[in-house]
Amino acid sequence: MKKQxxxxxxxxxxxSVWGGExxxxxxxxxxxxxxxxxxxxxxxxxxWVQVAKGEKEGYIYGRNTNPTLDVxxxxxxxxxxxxxxxxxxxxxxxxxxxxxxxxxxxxxxVASKDTYGGTSKIFLEFLPQYGIEVKLCDxxxxxxxxxxxxxxxxxxxxxxxxxxxxxxxxxNKLSEAGKSVGALVAVDNTLATPINQQPLALGADLVIHSxxxxxxxxxxxLGGLVCGNPEQIKKIFHFREINGxxxxxxxxxxxxxxxKTLALRMERHNSNALELARCLLEHPKIDTVFYPGLDTHPSxxxxxxxxxxxxxxLSFSLSGTEDLIPAFLTxxxxxxxxxxxxxxxxxxxxxxTTSHVENTVEExxxxxxxxxxxxxxxxxxxxxxxxxxxxxxxxxx
Length: 397
What we know:
By secondary structure, this protein is α/β, with parallel strands linked by helices. It folds into 2 domains: 10-259, Aspartate Aminotransferase, domain 2 (3-Layer(aba) Sandwich); 262-395, Aspartate Aminotransferase, domain 1, CATH 3.90.1150. Helices cover 39% and strands 14% of the residues. It has 15 helices and 12 strands. It has helices spanning 12-18, 45-52, 67-80, 91-102, 117-129, 142-150, 171-180, 193-196, 230-243, 249-259, 262-281, 300-306, 325-331, 361-366, 383-395; strands spanning 84-88, 108-112, 133-137, 155-159, 184-188, 206-210, 224-228, 286-290, 313-318, 336-337, 347-349, 373-377. The strands form 2 sheets. The protein has a 7-stranded mixed sheet with strand order 1-7-6-5-4-2-3, sandwiched between helices. The chain has a 5-stranded mixed sheet with strand order 8-9-12-11-10, covered by helices on one side. Helix 8 links the parallel strand 5 and strand 6. Helix 1 (12-18) packs antiparallel against helix 3 and helix 6 (142-150) packs parallel to helix 7. The protein is globular, with a radius of gyration of 21 Å. The N and C termini lie far apart (63 Å).
């Protein structure tokens, strides 16, 4: 018998641990079983048909559904305060399936310029091939975005904070603009996580995650998640089950295991990133620090209003015209130079090899991504050691 829990009354730290895991698992296991079976057998043909038609709960084939994935989807549904959720093989699978499930030739999308590089590629290259118009606006120019939305669109796509320049968009204000023309409003919540921000509560229709990042938290599994209302999620799920971007059970288990400590980890990510940002802000070899938790950030007030914490990612530009990034990266002792973010360990790298590696120099310039920028995903190490490491690397330049 399923337990009936009023999850909206439960705090995020408890939701992270217990969400989707309060019912009894097979063999009375206390941890989520990893079900690797591709097929599920039936002795009764009528029951098999009922399950296949969705008239009865059960499983048919691994490309469609899986018991381990069900638990993961329920956990993110609870954390985001959503009615439904579905999973994908990667974050970009979640983004692309969401877009292609809801758009057709002749439709119009309004989005901001500096979305994640893979997402911007879909906007710049793939959607136009299918006769879908895309209007990219200056990310924080809400007047321009609202003006373009008012012209009519089927989908408004937001990303806040943005990757890698940490720009902030007013989810509530822009969602109202989207709803006024009947547009679907989707928000990439990867950098914030549901611990720091809940877009659905702010008016969005869909919230998207690259579960590979902070949700997993340990750099050992790829995955994507989308939350929303049942009708929208059913549409996205159907597109995914036919096109096949299915999350594997082993990856789902690793993401689930990581999510148990999500609230705890985000507290440290938030505090470490804010303290490192303040430290770098004072250094003479740093031109600019991009982090929404700094009161010098142009959208600090909006961030403070819609976020409970400011996240674990910041970026900064090094002073001068010379490319000092290679020298800086090699002098760090406790940071991976890698194309990733959201892990327990600190990770650094320039957009040309991380968030926007798929884009040309010209595209990065058009999208507002400086070539001398360093993105830093601040880990959960002791902040004194992180600051000391960054300072010694900067002092050697």
